[in-house]
Amino acid sequence: GNQYIHANSAIPLQAGTGQYRNVLVSWNTVTYAASKRLMLGGGIDLYSTINAARLSPVWTVRLQYCGPLSETVHLGGTAFYLALPLPANSEDPAAEDELGLAAAMAQLTIGSPDNQLTLSGGMARVGDDSELRPILSGAAAVRIFANVQALTEHWVLLAEGDDVRAHSFALRVVGDFLAFDVGLLYNKELSERTFSWGMPFLAASLNF
């Protein structure tokens, strides 16, 4: 109920439990519920870390505080930092990428762990730029069979030159403690390095 593809809903994990998630072997994250409302998370990309001599290591840390207003409405707030090269100027291919995205967002989740919609919005800063930019996301999960969920997730970082957008779609096979995703991630910059229609991915999540 808490994990979409990359983002999280405002439905908290049970206190004292956590989740390990692996995407394409390389991307590894862990989320832990320190209390019934407070969750801590972090992750690291093994490929970029091993190749740190020529690549910037990709990693993330996250803090989330969330809880219920009712059985079907949850509110939360999250702050995260993602060490990831982002285009400084999409109109100038020669411009060096800026490293790092820091953001704080408010979250609203409507629905149950099986069928839910989460809308999030806040402000973000890219690299060393002092300018704050709006950042928005929307995600949904729908149980289509007894043990299968369909998920979709969309992000946009607003900028004067050109917005940065990312879209994800996946099917999730859900077990008692383990879940598997088969999905597709699309981003304009990513499509120029992988496939024009996006990058397929496999992921596994383990609750503990």
Walk me through this protein's architecture:
By secondary structure, the protein is mostly beta strands. It has helices spanning 46-50, 188-191; strands at 18-23, 27-33, 38-45, 59-68, 73-86, 98-111, 116-126, 133-145, 148-157, 164-174, 178-186, 199-207. The longest helix has 5 residues, at 46-50. The chain is globular and about 45 Å long.
Condensed summary:
This protein has helices spanning 46-50, 188-191, and strands at residues 18-23, 27-33, 38-45, 59-68, 73-86, 98-111, 116-126, 133-145, 148-157, 164-174, 178-186, 199-207.
Residue share in β-strands: over 45%
Order of helices and strands: EEEHEEEEEEEEHE
What percentage of residues falls in helices of 4 or more residues?
A: under 10%
Low-confidence stretches: none
Gyration radius (Cα, Å) is: 17 Å
Mean pLDDT: 92
Question: Distance N terminus to C terminus?
Answer: 14 Å
Please give the order of strands in the largest beta sheet.
Answer: 1-2-3-4-5-6-7-8-9-10-11-12
Strand count, sense and barrel status of the largest sheet are:
12 strands, antiparallel, barrel
Structural class: mainly beta
Total count of strands: 12
Number of helices: 2
Q: Which word captures the global form?
A: globular
